[in-house]
Amino acid sequence: MGGSLALAIRKKKLAYHVTGLVRNENTLQEAIHLGFADEFYLESDFLKKDLWNKYDFIVFSLPVDLTCKKISLIPDSYTGILTDLGSTKREIIQAVENRFTREHNYISSHPMTGSENSGAKYAKEDLYEGKLCILTSPKRLKTEVKEKIQTFWDKLGSQTIEIPAEDHDEVLAYLSHSPHIISSLLVTWAGTNPKVKEYNQRSKIPLSGGGFRDMSRIAGSNPEMWEAIIHTNKSDIYKSLKEFKIKLEELLEIFEKDGNSNFWKKYFEKARDYRNQIFKL
Amino acid sequence: MGGSLALAIRKKKLAYHVTGLVRNENTLQEAIHLGFADEFYLESDFLKKDLWNKYDFIVFSLPVDLTCKKISLIPDSYTGILTDLGSTKREIIQAVENRFTREHNYISSHPMTGSENSGAKYAKEDLYEGKLCILTSPKRLKTEVKEKIQTFWDKLGSQTIEIPAEDHDEVLAYLSHSPHIISSLLVTWAGTNPKVKEYNQRSKIPLSGGGFRDMSRIAGSNPEMWEAIIHTNKSDIYKSLKEFKIKLEELLEIFEKDGNSNFWKKYFEKARDYRNQIFKL
Fold first, then answer.
1. The domain boundary residue, chosen from B140, B163, B186
2. Tens of pLDDT, residues B256-280
C-alpha cells in the first residue's frame, strides 16, 4: 500500500520529494532496488535521528497495532500533516486523541483497495485510481487539514467519504474483516477434507473452478496485518460472525426439513439482489 | 456452457455440423442472431420430430434435474455418443443406469469452468482451454466411448480425470456447491446490515473492496441451475455445511476466550498453506 502510494504521488507530481521508510534491512535493499521513492530510510534510523520535521506530510502504512505505537511517538514539535492507511479505526482514533490534547493535523484514511500480495515488489501506481477512501476524523482535528487530505485523495483519483470510527469498524467487519476470516475458514475446511486432498493430488491441474478460487483469494493475504486487524476490531467481528452463524443455522434447518423445493431459487435470487445493491449494479 | 462448447467445437473443427437446441422462442432468436452453431431447434420440436438419430454426438447442457428427464427420453434406437455438463453426478448416473440395462454410450462430464453469467450471449470459444473436466462412468459403459470422450475433451484443451459419482458429489460439495451457498449467505448477511446499507447508499462508489467483491461474485449466478444443484446433492452439501458451522463455532470460541494473541497469525498462515495446496501454488 505504501509503495503504491509513493508511486502514485510521484506519478501525479503531488510532492517534490518522497521518502520511503522500511522496517528492516532486506526490505531496504529491495526498496532501493525498485526505486519507488527518492530516498529510503530504515524506520529505526529515522526515529533515532528524529527526522520528523524534515517532512510536511507523513503517511503510516503499517499494521494497525504498529500504527498506534508510531502515533504515540509523534513529537510535539511536528507541524506537518499526518495520516495512515489503517483497516480499523477505533484504536487509531483513540491513539490520536490520547496523543493530542490540543488541536492537531492527524486524520485517518482507509483506502478501500489492495491485493492479496504485500510487499514493495507488488506496488502499483494506479492502485488508488477510482477507489473509495474512507476518512475518519479524531476530536480536535483542524478543519483545513481535513480539506487538504480530501484534496490529496481526490488528486490520486480516489473518492472520499467520512465515516466515524465506530460505524467504520462495524461496516468493515461485514464487508472486509469477517469475510477474510470466512475465506480462511473456507480453505481450511475444504483443504482438510480427505477426498478433496486425494483427488486434488491425483489431478494435474487444481480440482477447483473459478468460484472457489475467487472466494479463497484473500485467504492468501498478509497474516501479520490481518492478525492486527482482528485484534483491533474484535467485538464487531465477533458480533457479525455470530450473526453469520445464526443465518447459516437457518439454512441448515431448510436442509433438515427437506421440503420447500422452491426455497433455494428464491434465496439465490434475493442474494443476487443484495449483491447488486452492494455493488450498485 | 453449451454455447461456448458449440463455439469451441467449431473453432477446433471437431464436427462438420453443430446444432444448438434451446428451450424457448426468445433464446432461439438470440441464438440464431449470435450464430454460434450451424442450425438451431427448439427442444420441443427436436423431440416431436424425433431427430435423435440425425446426430452422432449429443451433449446435454441443462440443469441437472432437466438432464435426468432428458436421459429418460433417449430412444432405444439411438446409437451415437452422449454426455452432459452436469454439476452433480449421483442422480445423472442413476438416471443413465436406469435408462440402459444393456451396454451403452453415455459417460457424464463435468467441465470445471463457467462464469457467473449464463446465456448464449456470454458464450466464449476458449472456455474449456486449460481447464479440468471430470468424467464419471455409469455401469455398462462401452470402453471405447470413454476413450472417445477423453480424446474429445483433450482436443478442446481440457485435462480429464475420472471420479466416481459418490466421490465427485462429496468433493464438489466442498469446492463448489457449499461455497456457492456461503457466497450467497455472505451478501445476504452483509446486505441486510443497517449500517452497511446506510453508508453504501451515501457513497458514490460501492463501499466494498476487492476481497468481498471476489467472495460474492458467484452469488450472482443462475438461480435455477443452482437450485437444481442443491436438490441433487442435498446430503453432501448439508454434511459439509454442518462441518463448516462447527469450524466457525471453534473460531467464535477463540473470540470468547479473548486470549491467544498469536492464534490468528498462525491460523491465517495455515489457511494460506491450504490454499496453496489446493491451487498447487
1. B163
2. 987 667 899 999 999 999 999 999 8
- Rg over alpha carbons for chain B, rounded to the nearest Å, is 22
Mean pLDDT of A130-139: 96
Question: Using 50, 70 and 90 to split pLDDT, how confident is the model at A163?
Answer: very high
E strand or H helix that includes residue A197 = helix A194-202
ipTM: 0.90
> Are B21 and B159 in a shared domain?
yes
Closest partner residue to B238 among A255, A270, A277, by Cβ?
Answer: A255
The CA distance from A176 to A182, in Å, is 10
Last residue of a domain, one of B133, B163, B193: B163
Within this chain, do residues B20 and B37 fall inside the same structural domain, yes or no?
A: yes
Using a CB-CB cut-off of 8 Å, the residues of chain B touching A183 are 211, 215, 271
Residue B249: HSE in the Cβ half-sphere, 13 Å Cα cutoff: 9
Tell whether A183 lies on the interface with B, counting CB pairs under 8 A: yes
CA torsion sign for B37, B43, B48, B52 is positive
Average pLDDT over chain A reads 93
Q: Is B192 on the interface with A (CB under 8 A)?
A: yes
Question: Which runs of consecutive H residues, i.e. helices, occur in chain B?
Answer: 2-11, 25-34, 43-48, 64-73, 90-99, 143-155, 165-172, 178-191, 194-202, 210-216, 223-232, 234-257, 263-278
Q: Inspect the interface and report whether the beta carbons of B275 and A237 lie closer than 8 Å.
A: no
CATH number of the domain where residue A32 is located: 3.40.50.720
Q: Do the beta carbons of residue B103 and residue B81 sit within 8 Å? A: no
**CA dist., res. A270 & res. B5, Å (int):** 30
Q: Provide the 3-class DSSP secondary structure of residue B254.
A: helix
Domain that holds residue A219: 168-278
Per-residue pLDDT band at A113 (split at 50, 70, 90): confident
Cβ atoms within 10 Å, residue B144: 10
Does the beta carbon of A180 lie under 8 angstroms from any beta carbon of chain B?
Answer: yes
- Note whether A79 and A13 are same-domain residues: yes
